[in-house]
Amino acid sequence: MTEMRRTPEFMTTDELADTLTRLAEAIRTGDSLEGSFEYLLPDEEHPCDGYDGGCPHVMVTAGFRVGNQQGQGGMQFIGGWKPAEQVPA
Fold first, then answer.
1. Which domain does 75 fall in, by range?
2. Cα–Cα distance, 20 to 45 (Å, whole number)
3. Which residues touch 14 (CB under 8 Å, ≥6 apart)?
4. pLDDT value, residue 56
5. Which one-letter DSSP state was computed for residue 27?
6. Got the DSSP string for 66-78?
7. What pLDDT does residue 39 have?
8. CA angle 56, 89, 17 (to 5 degrees)
9. CB 13 within 8 A of CB 58
10. How far is the C-alpha of 73 from the C-alpha of 37, rounded, in Å?
11. pLDDT per position as a tens digit, 23-78
């Protein structure tokens, strides 16, 4: 079985703020009951490898539930997965 690692989605600070605002509203209204959210500013330890078009402001990985008021709901993921050998250590 291939080991997989999370890879970030690249966002501007405005996109990050908008996403956090939507998530905060979902939490406030009881529409999101669990999740995780991580963002990093690119630096020497966390470079923007693999991004075409210049280095964005933040790298985001997240997974959180949404739609809980409508029943079981679902998950929203930000970022992706790649085989470990394709992700810089």
1. 4-86
2. 24
3. none
4. 63
5. H
6. E-GGGSS-EEEEE
7. 92
8. 30
9. yes
10. 18
11. 999 999 999 989 999 998 877 776 666 555 566 678 899 999 888 888 778 888 99
> What is the C-alpha to C-alpha distance for residues 68 and 30, in angstroms, rounded to an integer?
7
pLDDT of 22 higher than 80: yes
- Measured CA to CA, the distance from residue 20 to residue 43 in angstroms comes to 22
H or E stretch at 21: helix 13-28
pLDDT of residue 20: 95
What domain count does the chain have? 1
Residue 31 sits at φ, ψ, to 5 deg, of -90, -10
CB 9 within 8 A of CB 80: yes
Q: Which residue has the tokens 């993921």?
A: 77
- For the cut 80, the answer to whether the pLDDT of residue 87 exceeds it is no
Is the pLDDT reported for residue 79 higher than 80? yes
Amino acid sitting at position 44: E
